[in-house]
Design goal:
heterodimer, A: about 90 residues, alpha+beta, Mth169, Chain: A, three-stranded antiparallel beta sheet, 3 strands, about 30% helix, about 30% strand, B: about 240 residues, alpha/beta, Rossmann fold, nine-stranded mixed beta sheet
Chain lengths: ~90, ~240
Amino acid sequence: MPEFEALVEVQLRPGISDPQGATIERALPALGFSGVSEVRAGKAFRLKVAAADRVEAERVCSDLVGRLLANPVIEDASVSVVPAAPRVRG
Amino acid sequence: MAALVGVVVFPGTNCEHDVAEALERLGADAELVWHGSSDLSHLDAVVLPGGFAHGDYLRPGAIARFSPVMAAVRELAAAGAPVVGICNGFQVLTEAHLLPGALQKNKGLTFLCQMVEVEVASERSVLTAGLAPGRRLHVPINHFEGNYTAAPETLRALEAEGRVVLRYIGNPNGSAHDIAGVCNEEGNVVGLMPHPERASSDLLGSTDGLALLGAFLRSAGAWVSGGRGRSMLAR
C-alpha cells in the first residue's frame, strides 16, 4: 500500500489565550526584532500513513484530528498530505 | 452503610490520597481505582482527582480520555451515579465530552496556586445538592489550565439550565461567566477546578470543601437507596 507523509498543524483558535506565543513575543524586542508581532504558538505532528490514495490518507488524518490531536472547542487544525519519498535501499 | 467511592488513578494523578482521606474523614470508604480497570459497577460514586494524567501530554485530559477506566466511568455516569472531576479530573471530563466546554490556559498566563472564594451558583448537582445558592466557600486552586471556555450557545444553556455549579468571587483565571464548576444536564456529573479535598481540615486553612464532598456523599447515598437508577435525578 502506498505511504504518505502528513503534516498536521494545530493552533489555538483566535481569542484563546496563548501564554507561549505571548511570552515569545515579549522577548523579541530584547533580541532586536522590533517588527514582529502576533506570535501564536501551536503544535505540529508529522505522520506516515499507509493508505490506498491521498484522499484516503487525508481522511485518516482528519479523523485523527477530530478524535485526538485537536480539541475543537479551543483549537483549529490543518492537514497536508504528500506521497512519501521512496525508501532508499541499503 | 458507608458509600464506596472510587478514586481514579491515572499515571500522573497526584491528588488521589488527599481525596481518599477527605472522603474517609466524612465516613465514606474510598477505593483507589487504576486507570486500566474496566469495571466500576460495584462503586457508589466516582472521583477523578487532580494531577497530570498521562503527563498532560497533547492537552490535559486528552490521553486520559482513552484509558479503559473512562468507558466504565461513562457507563456509571449514564446510570446516574455521582461523578465528580476535580481540576485535572475536570479537564478529563471535558475531553471525554461528559461535560461541555474546555479549560484553556489561565488569562494571566501564570500557574495559580492560591486560596480562592467561590459561591454556590446552583444546587442542581450532586456536589451542591442541599447547599444554599449564594453560600460562599474558601477552597484552593492549583492549575495552569483552569480558564473555562465554551461556545456562546453552550454558556447560555448552562446558565439557563442552572448548570453553573460554582462561581469565583474575584475571577482568578479569566473563566467565562466566572465559572469554577459545571455539571451535565442530569446534574450527576460535575467538574470543578478548586480542590475541595484541600479544604478539608483546619490545618489546611479551610474546611469548606467538606460541605461539597458531604453533599457528594449524600447524593451517592440517595442514588444507591433509589435503586441505582436515573429516576432520582429527576428534580
